[in-house]
Amino acid sequence: MPRTARASVAHIWYHVLTRGNRREEFLHKPADYDAFVKAMTDANARLPADILGYRLMPNHFHLVIRTHADGDLGRWVQWLLMAHARRYHRHYQTTGHVWRGRFQAFPLQDDDHLVTVLRHVERNALRAELVARAEDWKWSSLPGWLGGDPLLWRGHAGPR
Questions:
Q1: Domain 14-147 sits in CATH 3.40.50.300
Q2: 8 A C-beta contact, residue 68 and residue 159
Q3: pLDDT per residue over 118-131, tens digit each?
Q4: Lesser CB count within 10 Å: N end or C end of the chain?
Q5: What is the mean pLDDT of residues 62-91?
Q6: Which residues of 10-39 are buried (b: 16+ CB within 10 A; e: fewer)?
Q7: Beta-carbon contacts of residue 100 (< 8 Å; ≥ 6 apart)
């Protein structure tokens, strides 16, 4: 019996995260990270959403996102996860589960909560001691904000 679709409300920021199956790495080299960012761009072209922040880590990722229609969050993330799993299996000649299970999505209640989550997301590689400064982790929204990453939402007035 199929699972019920994950409910999501349009125009609400969500903190989305998921891990590799058994907490294993699903991003092994720079090309994997770049391909995942490309998949996020492709997902956004298929089903536009606003991305405020993200951080890719070897065995998990964080995303701060809002969609434009109720229910689109699940469709957006499902497409992203499936696209990456297909690439992963094709590239590494593997089979089986890439992801731990369903992704987690938490609505961000107010601006203070949003800022706290963004700080957590953008400092994740620093906390994991992968870099000396948070902005040095290439696969994150933080250097994207500093460098003009087109994937990131730039604060349009009202919903698109």
A1: no
A2: yes
A3: 999 999 999 999 99
A4: N
A5: 96
A6: eeebbbbbbbbeeeeebbeeeebbebbbeb
A7: 18, 19, 20, 21, 22, 23
